[in-house]
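User: Predict structure, ligand calcium ion.
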Amino acid sequence: AKREGKNRVLFYKDDLREENTKLANMINYIQEGIEQEQFYLEYQPQYRLSNKELTGMEALLRWQHPKEGYISPAEFIPIAERTGQIYRLERLVLKKALEQKMLWEKQGFTDIELAINLSTKTLTSNINFSEWEQILDSYSVDYSKIVIEITETADILNVDSVITRLSNLKKKGIKIALDDFGTGYASLNYLTKFPIDIIKLDKSFINAITKEGVDTLLIKNVLRLAYELKFNVIAEGIETKEQMQYLINYHCDLGQGYLLSKPLSEYKLLRLLENENT
Ligand code: C2E
Ligand code: CA
Ligand code: CA
Ligand code: CA
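Assistant: Predicted complex:
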């Protein structure tokens, strides 16, 4: 369930006029948030399930508003996509994440992958994508340890240009993950159309793995398919030991979720890396 409480005032959908007012307010809110540096990143560790080896981190955008408190990206990203502010936010995310990556490398954690979310909005926008790419090029990091997570959407009109853009990322060594796999309608279509390396199983899939083992036929077959087609698979939202064991049994190598670790602040992340090293 979504968070109740303070944010309700901002996000509750009433009539259209009220909605437009709220959207206008949100534009200012987000703008202010950027200027006042209310946005920051947390990182959720990703592990090899069989031996709990730390393999990567997903950068997740956070917004701590001075009055409203914590606002989830699940709430503000769709709005930022509508207002066009997503472009600026994603440039901010990329910069911050790459700075972290450089820090990890400097400290000797050269094998840790960094996963960054990229919205279809940015991916399909000419100017904004090239600005995003320029930032990517301006950091000297090991690109082979960078993963870009994209999600399925219906609104990719220019398929060829997206293929070219993703292929150019891959030429640098970057890997492409198809995020939230299983929630869209075009999953298989995406896998064949775009140069995808990694399938990221959505949490709703993982939720279906219960103690009783019901409702797992679908996920079993998805994992088998991914294995046979030689995609790498990572599961998100692992919360129970049963889910983890099930995933291991069906060749899902990697995973993230509260069972393993919640998203961490930069500070906590550094402590984790230090402990990994000893
Ligand atoms: P996502 O990419 O599917 O990210 C995974 C979400 O699941 C994150 O929520 C994470 O905190 C949460 N999560 C991880 N493990 C567990 C678990 O075991 N149990 C539960 N209940 N939740 C878990 P978060 O951070 O609220 O992000 C929500 C969505 O916002 C993300 O979903 C992603 O689509 C979007 N998002 C976050 N950061 C960015 C960003 O920098 N750019 C873009 N475009 N989207 C972002
Ligand atoms: Ca993601
Ligand atoms: Ca995901
Ligand atoms: Ca998801």
